[in-house]
Each structure stands twice: as C-alpha cells, then as structure tokens.
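Field log, afternoon session.

UNIT: design team B
ACTIVITY: writing a sequence onto a fixed backbone
BACKBONE:
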C-alpha cells in the first residue's frame, strides 16, 4: 500500500454509493446540502469514493460516499475511524478524507428495511441474470416474476429476480420448471446480511475496511 494508493470506482459501474446508501443509516436524515459548499472541490471523483459506515458499536451498517461522510463528520454525527492519505481543500481548510466512519449515537437497524425496487433487486442479484447466470448492465436487465403474474405470482422479494431480456422472452408466461430454466439461487429479501456481503465486495479494494468487515 503506497502513500499514493488510488482507489478507483468499480469500472463495471455496478456500484454507486447512492445505490447502497438508500434507506440505510448514514444516508437518511438531513441531506447536508448546505454543507456541500464547505467541501467544494475540484476532486469530484474522490468525493464519490465509498466510505464504510459503522454503527456506534462498530458494526458495519452501510456504505456511503466521501462527500456524505464528511458532511456527517462536520455535523458531529460521525467521526472518522480510518483515513485516506489524501486531503481535499475547501476555501480555508484542508480536510482529511475518511475511509471508515463511525456514528456517535447508536442507530437501530430494522432487519428488512430495504424498499422493494428494481434497483435493489438488481443490487441483490448483482446484475446477474438469475437464469443464464451472466452479468449485464442494468439497462439490459428486466425483472422477472418467477411465478408469472398471470398465474398468481406476486411482486415480492421472493418472486422477483433480475433477468436478461433473452431469458425473459424464452421463459414467457411459464414457471422456470415449465420453461426448462433453473434459478441460480432462491430469491430472498434484501437483508442486512446481503448488505454486508455487498460491503465485503466493495471493501475488498480498501484494506482499511477489512478489520471491520471480516469478523
Ligand atoms: Zn439470461
């Protein structure tokens, strides 16, 4: 790990801090938009780098962006636990860039606080068609009702999966069994466990995250 180690955003573009930040602590509450001017910087990409958010108990609960993390720190909601060897400059100050922050007050996290949405289902399935097991850009994926709606299938976490258009067409109005297709895995609600798995994947690039994630 050199002093100038640079972290790049996932080149496949399958992760944005906003995507996993939705409906999770560290992303809710005041948006802090008024504080953004304080942090105005030309290094916009650095400000979008992922930051691991820990609960007051050091339990990892979320991933957010550097910009958001610094707003939480300025507001006194969170403190930095790990820093990058980089600074960003506002008009008058140099700010160290956090890699891991911790909330100062404990937040209760509901087990299944995730909204059922196309975005979150693609996130859960990691943009992988659950029938042909290939990864696609979001724009080339649709949501498939495993048990078709015409057969009483509901729009739930357990009955919706990411699906490429080709598999979706070949499946048509049939169950996977009828269409000769097999699900890569049984669809489950997006739980905190799933979030942690995602955080592990994202955090693989940043050694500073390891001691909080691999326990
Ligand atoms: Zn497919």
């Amino acid at each position: 790990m050199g002093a100038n180690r640079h972290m790049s955003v996932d080149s496949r573009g399958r992760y944005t801090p906003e995507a996993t930040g939705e409906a999770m602590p560290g992303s809710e509450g005041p948006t802090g938009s008024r504080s953004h001017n304080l942090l105005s910087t030309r290094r916009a990409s650095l400000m979008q780098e992922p930051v691991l958010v820990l609960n007051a108990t050091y339990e990892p609960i979320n991933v957010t962006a550097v910009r958001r993390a610094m707003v939480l720190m300025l507001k006194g909601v969170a403190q930095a636990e790990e820093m990058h060897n980089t600074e960003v400059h506002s008009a008058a100050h140099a700010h160290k860039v956090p890699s891991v922050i911790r909330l100062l007050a404990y937040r209760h996290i509901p087990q299944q606080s995730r909204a059922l949405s196309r975005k979150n289902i693609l996130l859960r399935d990691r943009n992988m068609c659950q029938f042909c097991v290939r990864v696609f850009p979001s724009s080339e994926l649709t949501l498939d009702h495993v048990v078709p709606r015409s057969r009483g299938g509901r729009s739930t976490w357990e009955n919706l999966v990411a699906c490429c258009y080709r598999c979706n067409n070949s499946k048509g109005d049939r169950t996977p069994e009828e269409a000769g297709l097999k699900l890569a895995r049984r669809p489950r609600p997006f739980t905190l466990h799933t979030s942690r798995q995602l955080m592990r994947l994202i955090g693989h690039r940043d050694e500073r995250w390891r001691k909080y994630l691999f326990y």
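LOG NOTE: The helical segments are 17-21, 44-47, 66-74, 118-124, 165-171, 176-179, 192-203, 207-213.
NEXT ACTIVITY: expression trials, pending approval
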